[in-house]
Design brief:
alpha/beta; TIM Barrel; Oligo-1,6-glucosidase, domain 2; Immunoglobulin-like; 3 domains; 13 helices; globular; binds 1-O-alpha-D-glucopyranosyl-D-fructose; GH; Glycoside hydrolase family 13 protein; O16G_dom_2; GH13_cat_dom
Length: 514
C-alpha cells in the first residue's frame, strides 16, 4: 500500500507548533489539540521533528534516548494518544530518526568517556589519537557543518568526531551494536503505530576508512561539495538497505531521506528500489524565482528519480532554511512569489512537504542576538546567525506575546505585528494565504492526484513556464518575468494572486487551469 505516493506531508517543528502547558515550548498534546485544523487544511500526513529525550543543544537533533519522549514534549502515552487520534482524523504520522550521531548525554557516550582508549565503549563512536606533538592537533582537517573543527578532545587526550555540534558525537557505523540499535528503534516505533520515518542526514553515517583529510578547497566550508569525504560515502547504502528491510516487514510504512547530495545521479542512489522510498529534493530550495531555473531543477530531478523507478519529493522549506516568503524577496513580493511557487510544486507529480507556517505565509523573523539559540550561532563564533529565524512559533490567534501558541512566553520571541497572520485571522478570509493553501490542496486531490509520473511542458513566453502533469487535466502556468502574459487555454481554477483586468497573468503569479 503506497499511500505516500502523492501525499502532502506537513512538517511539524514540534517545539514551535502548539504548547499545551504554558512552558513556551510546543508539545505532543499541543499537536493533538490541533488535529482538527490539520484535517481542515487537508494534509495527508505529519512529519514530527525529534521529540526524544534530549539535552536540546540542537533542539532535539541531539538524541539521548531514541525510544523515549522528552518530558518537555510529553511522554509515551501522549505520543500513543496523538497517533491514535491523528489516524481517526485520517492523518498519518511519521517521525524523525537521527542515526548519524547521538547526544553526548546518551548513555553510550557517557560510558565511552568513562572508559579507556581502545575500549568497546569507545568503539561505538569515532575516537582517535591526535596528530602533531602530544597529539594536540585533531586527527584530520574536517570541519563541523556548524563551524569549527569536527573534533573535540577528551581529558585523556583522544579526540572524537562530530560533524555537527560537539554535543552530537558521530556514531561509528562499522560497529554492529550501532546497527542493532537502529533496528530496535525502527521496530519500537513501528510497533507503536507510526506510518514512517524521516531519516536525518541520510547521506551521513558511513565514513571512509581511516578518515582521510578533506583534499579539496571545500575543507573550510560548511557546504557539502561532491568530493567531501564527510558525506555520501558508499557504505551508507547498506544502512538504507537495512532500514528498508525492517520496514518491509510492516505493511504501508515508508522512509524519506534528508539527502543533501547535489549530483542528481548520486542522489538517485538513495531511492533505489531496495533503499529509501523517498528522498527530499532540495533543488527548489536553492533555486531563484526564475522560470528557466525552476524548470531545469524540475526536469533534472524528475529524470534522476525516474531512472531508478522512484517517486519525486518536493519541498520549498523546512526548519533549516530561510522561509520562501523571505527567500523570494520578502514583504508582499516575497509572499506573492511563495504562493506562486506553492502552485508549481503542488501541481507536480510526486510528494510535497509543507513546513508549518508556510500555509500562513510566515516570513523569517529577524531576532535580536539575545534570543538566538541555534548552536550554529555560537559555534561559528557568532558570524552565522543560524536557523532560529525560520523556527519562530506558529501564531494561532489573538495577540502577543504568545498568539495562542502558548499561554506563557514563547521560546523564541514572536513579532508584535503577527496578529494579521494568525490562523484565526486567516481562516474565514477567502483571500488569505491559508484559504489559498486549503483550496490548492482540495483541487490537487480532485485534479492531480494519481495521475502519471511525467510532466508535459508547453511553450511559454520568456520568463514563464507552463506544464501539465501527464494524465492530469490540471495545467500550471508561472510568470517570473516583468510583464503580464496571456494564460494558456482552459478554465482558471485557482491563481496565487489577482489576474490583470484583461485576464492576463501578472508577474510573480501562477495559475491553475483545467
Ligand atoms: O540537517 C543536516 C544538515 O546537513 C543541515 O545542517 C544542512 O546542511 C543545513 O542546515 C543547511 O542549511 C539535519 C537537521 O535537519 C538539522 O536540523 C540538524 O541540526 C542536523 O541534521 C543535525 O542533526
Amino acid at each position: 500500500m503506497r499511500w505516500w505516493r502523492d501525499a502532502v506531508f506537513y512538517q511539524v517543528y514540534v517545539r514551535s507548533f502548539s504548547d499545551s502547558d504554558g512552558d513556551g515550548v510546543g508539545d505532543l498534546d499541543g499537536i493533538r489539540s490541533r488535529l482538527g485544523y490539520l484535517e481542515l487544511l487537508g494534509v495527508d500526513a505529519l512529519w514530527l521533528t525529534p521529540f526524544y529525550r534530549s539535552p536540546m543543544t540542537d533542539h532535539g537533533y541531539d538524541v539521548a534516548d531514541p525510544r523515549d519522549v522528552d518530558p518537555v514534549f510529553g511522554n509515551l502515552a501522549a505520543f500513543d494518544a496523538l497517533v491514535e487520534e491523528a489516524h481517526r482524523h485520517g492523518i498519518r504520522v511519521t517521525i524523525d530518526l537521527v542515526p548519524n550521531h547521538s547526544s553526548s548525554e546518551h548513555e553510550w557516550f557517557r560510558a565511552a568517556l568513562e572508559s579507556a582508549p581502545g575500549s568497546p565503549e569507545r568503539a561505538r563512536y569515532h575516537f582517535k589519537p591526535g596528530r602533531g606533538p602530544d597529539g594536540a592537533e585533531p586527527p584530520n582537517n574536517w570541519h563541523s557543518v556548524f563551524g569549527g573543527p569536527a573534533w573535540s578532545r577528551v581529558p585523556d587526550g583522544e579526540w572524537y568526531l562530530h560533524l555537527f555540534a560537539a554535543e552530537q558525537p558521530d556514531l561509528n557505523w562499522t560497529n554492529p551494536e550501532v546497527w542493532a540499535d537502529l533496528e530496535k528503534t525502527l521496530r519500537f516505533w513501528c510497533d507503536r503505530g507510526v506510518d514512517g520515518f524521516r531519516i536525518d542526514v541520510a547521506h551521513g553515517m558511513s565514513k571512509p576508512e581511516g578518515l582521510p583529510d578533506h583534499a579539496g578547497p571545500g575543507a573550510a566550508l560548511l557546504a557539502h561539495t561532491d568530493d567531501d569525504p564527510r558525506f555520501d560515502h558508499e557504505g551508507v547504502h547498506d544502512v538504507h538497505r537495512m532500514i528498508r528491510a525492517v520496514l518491509d516487514h510492516y505493511p504501508g510504512r515508508m522512509a524519506v531521506g534528508e539527502v543533501w547530495v547535489r549530483d542528481d545521479d548520486r542522489f538517485a542512489r538513495y531511492v533505489r528500489p531496495d533503499e529509501l522510498h523517498l528522498g527530499f529534493n532540495f533543488r527548489l530550495v536553492q533555486t531563484a524565482f526564475d522560470a528557466a531555473e525552476v524548470r531545469e531543477a524540475i526536469e533534472h530531478s524528475l529524470e534522476s528519480v525516474a531512472g531508478v523507478g522512484a517517486h519525486p519529493t518536493w519541498t520549498l522549506s523546512n526548519h533549516d532554511v530561510s522561509r520562501p516568503v523571505t527567500r523570494y524577496g520578502g514583504g508582499a513580493l516575497g509572499l506573492a512569489r511563495a504562493r506562486a511557487m506553492a502552485l508549481v510544486v503542488l501541481a507536480l507529480p510526486g510528494v510535497v512537504y509543507l513546513y508549518n507556517g508556510e500555509e500562513l505565509g510566515l516570513p523569517d523573523v529577524e531576532l535580536p542576538d539575545w534570543a538566538l539559540q541555534d548552536p550554529v550561532w555560537e559555534r561559528s563564533g557568532r558570524t552565522e546567525r543560524g536557523r532560529d529565524s525560520c523556527r519562530v512559533p506558529v501564531p494561532w490567534e489573538g495577540d502577543g506575546p504568545g498568539f495562542g501558541f502558548t499561554s506563557g512566553e514563547p521560546w523564541l520571541p514572536m513579532p508584535d505585528d503577527w496578529a494579521a497572520l494568525t490562523v484565526a485571522a486567516q481562516i474565514e478570509d477567502t483571500d488569505s494565504t491559508l484559504s489559498f493553501f486549503r483550496r490548492a490542496l482540495e483541487l490537487r486531490d480532485e485534479h492531480a492526484v494519481s495521475a502519471g509520473s511525467g510532466v508535459e511542458w508547453f511553450g511559454a513566453p520568456p520568463g514563464c513556464l507552463a506544464f501539465r502533469r501527464s494524465g492530469s487535466t490540471l495545467v500550471c502556468a508561472l510568470n517570473t518575468s516583468d510583464e503580464p502574459v496571456p494564460l494558456p487555454p482552459g478554465d482558471v481554477l485557482l491563481t496565487s494572486g489577482p489576474l490583470c483586468d484583461d485576464g492576463r497573468l501578472p508577474p510573480d503569479t501562477a495559475a491553475w487551469l483545467a
